[in-house]
Specification:
Length: 406
């Protein structure tokens, strides 16, 4: 039995949560008291409440059967069940317009290291449920029970680690069981401004010295996505400096010279994580993308950058032709990897340039469709790259001139 610290955090709870959420918690607490279920707010919600920062999601753990409890809530007219995962003992419900996840306490084992755990014991004790988690700061529980409402239940020293700004794993085999926790640690360290605790950092280094590549790469991808889609300036630096990149490649990765933050601020890519991943992926074989189970579009972004990396551009026309159909993420990968001048030149001066004249316009002018149309469009485009003010009427004049003087 792990030693447990209990303090009451009603004041924090009262200050942090909105009136709507407090009403929901109080209502489910009353129902739980009648039905003899034990409920706890757990994970990121408790951590963020203590840090006073906005939380991304609210998870409630039911010591016992969450699905059974959700059915009681629904029967009494308090909640609508949205979906149920029987294998994991989890259920999503809607209460007063808010979506809340209820999970049965469960323990997990990792029969195949690096892969999804097997659920072992649904309905186990809260303590066992806590011990399956990744870091101490994510393992805090806040009681929603009538007899000890807002008591903080801390089996693993998460409260002290929050105060000390430390990310600490719960046991020495944690990264071996699930190496994606290394990326999760990076995510929390950068998001919260925390450091890895000494032993955690040492075990991370040890794991990265001999990575077991038989792992669930899709989970690696998902953690990379969550980590690098958050605005954080130094996550990628740590990803390289600490050798975390070794989870996805056997090759050495060097720190890029370009200022990625500035490029992101200026050009605002929708998926920053793909730019970061692309900086590694362009030097890999094509199966890199398949191994990580990237979608067709995600893969395309990286492979297009790979194809353009060694390409030289004779003039603006060639540059425009190569870049005009690329996604911004592809262009930013190229920018970071040495083509910043060309990419900025294209994005700042040419990316909005489009021809207005169409094949239909030419047919209306009496020309018969032919391969010459494409050359004509290129002729107009070359002119337009020198003078972006050219309007449709002038485009028509130019292409007419070109086609009649062939
Ligand atoms: P947040 O960033 O707000 O913590 P998240 O989406 O990263 O949210 P989830 O992935 O929803 O967190 O996980 C919720 C909780 O489940 C975590 O707080 C943690 O306790 C536990 N957890 C998640 N992933 C793992 C993992 N790989 N190993 C062990 N525990 C995990």
């Amino acid at each position: 039995m792990v030693a447990m610290n209990i303090i009451n955090l009603y004041e924090n709870f009262n200050y942090y949560f909105s009136a709507e959420y407090k009403a929901i918690f109080e209502r489910v607490s009353k129902v739980a008291s009648k039905s003899k279920h034990k409920l706890y707010l757990i994970g990121g919600g408790v951590r963020d409440m203590l840090l006073g920062i906005k939380s991304l999601d609210i998870d409630i753990t039911v010591e016992g059967d969450a699905i059974e409890f959700a059915r009681i809530l629904e029967r009494e007219g308090y909640a609508k069940i949205l979906n149920v995962h029987k294998d994991f003992g989890t259920v999503k419900v809607e209460i007063d317009g808010e979506k809340i996840d209820f999970a049965s306490t469960r323990s997990e084992i990792y029969p195949k290291k690096g892969h999804l755990p097997h659920v072992k014991n649904i309905g186990c004790s809260l303590e066992e449920d806590v011990l399956r988690r990744d870091f101490t700061v994510n393992s805090l529980a806040l009681s929603l029970n009538q007899d000890n409402f807002a008591d903080l239940i801390d089996y693993v020293g998460g409260f002290d680690d929050l105060k000390d700004k430390k990310i600490r794993i719960l046991h020495d085999k944690s990264f071996i069981d699930d190496p994606t926790r290394i990326i999760r640690a990076l995510k929390y360290a950068t998001r919260l401004g925390f450091e890895l605790e000494e032993n955690t950092l040492m075990l991370q280094k040890e794991y990265l010295r001999s990575v077991n590549y038989d792992m669930c790469n899709k989970r690696v991808k998902n953690e990379i996505k969550k980590t690098f889609d958050e605005p954080s300036s130094n996550a990628f630096e740590k990803f390289i400096d600490q050798g975390i990149y070794k989870l996805v490649t056997l090759k050495e990765v060097k720190k890029p010279h370009a200022n990625i933050e500035n490029l992101f601020a200026k050009y605002n890519p929708k998926h920053p994580w793909l730019v970061y991943l692309g900086l590694i992926g362009v030097f890999e074989n094509d199966d890199f993308c398949d191994k990580l189970e990237l979608t067709k579009i995600e893969k395309g972004i990286i492979l297009c950058a790979k194809g353009l990396l060694e390409k030289e551009f004779k003039d603006d026309f060639e540059l425009y032709k190569a870049f005009c159909n690329q996604k911004i993420e592809t262009l930013l990968i190229l920018a970071v990897l040495g083509k910043e001048k060309q990419v900025s030149h294209y994005l700042d001066n040419f990316s909005k340039i489009k021809l207005h004249v169409t094949g239909d316009d030419l047919v209306k002018l009496g020309f018969s469709p032919s391969k010459a149309f494409a050359d004509g469009f290129d002729y107009v485009l070359r002119e337009k790259l020198q003078n972006s003010q050219i309007k449709k009427a002038q485009e028509l004049k130019l292409i007419k001139y070109y086609l009649t003087n062939l």
